[in-house]
Amino acid sequence: MIRIKAGVRRRRVLSLALPTAWGATAITYKLACPLAQQEGLGARIVTSAVFFAVGTGLIFHVRWALLRELRLARQVAGAAQSVLLRPLPQRIDGLRVAAAQLSADRGAAVGGDLYEVIATEHGVRVVMGDVRGHGIGAIGTVAAVLGSFREAVHDEAELGSVLRRLERALARHLGEPDPDSPVAEEFVTVLLLEIGEGGEVRAFNCGHPAPYLLSGGRVDVLTSGEPLPPLGPFPLPAELSAEHYGQLLPGESLLLHTDGVEDARDAHGRFFPLPAVLAEAVRTQPISPQAVLRAIFTRLLRHTGGPPTDDVAVLVLRNDRRHVPRQQEHSVAHQVT
Model-level pTM greater than 0.85? Predict the structure, then answer.
């Protein structure tokens, strides 16, 4: 810590050294140089050249300092991203995984969207969430929810208990802020999934967009029952029972996303046609999660004509397991709309 503080002080001294030297040079010339006291045209040209050189030097120094601060800010943002939305491995317990996010805040590498996939003794557990708002202001909430999820998925045998842990973590994070603060109105939509050994999918949906099932050349929206309210404004029900989304068979994929995808608009106000883009992407078999991501983000940026106005996150999981247990070889009917 002492070395870090010393390094910071040293950088501050060095950053002030050059402007001080330039300023001292200009003042010394003006006060001590006889040429600066003359009124002739030649003397004025020389004096103007000296002060022009000083001004140019100061401008370049300020530019260098700003670029340096920008590089440091990007390094900090990259470090925050690696901790919060750490890169997911390509394979997790027989599932091929691909995920990407895009922040709407140009000054942030991360925003208000969150996701994580963790293999546990209870199955592969997945969370996809969306914090109200976006950008740097939402990072604290993202950290609270993800931190709780990463612990709870290993500790809790029941998926409903994991959801309650997320709710309590969010409540602790929000605390009792100033009612006029934006944090007082913050909430998080959450889609919490559990994929069992045989591909059976159980889930809680707290106000989040429903996932898509990519099977063969088909694209279906998976729904089951009424979703719960987002975490934050209202308490969870006393009794929690996970919804059954059917079975993810070998070769099939699930796509999870935040509402920034389907809510993205073009210059004419038209929403992004995610189902149509997915239908085009799944024509190539077998379905590659990375290819699906590329198709979505390429078409999305083309649709919006630039960065989106809301944070965007997409997660694709494909079942690459070679078989399912004998007692589950018959496919459980997918519940689709």
Answer: no
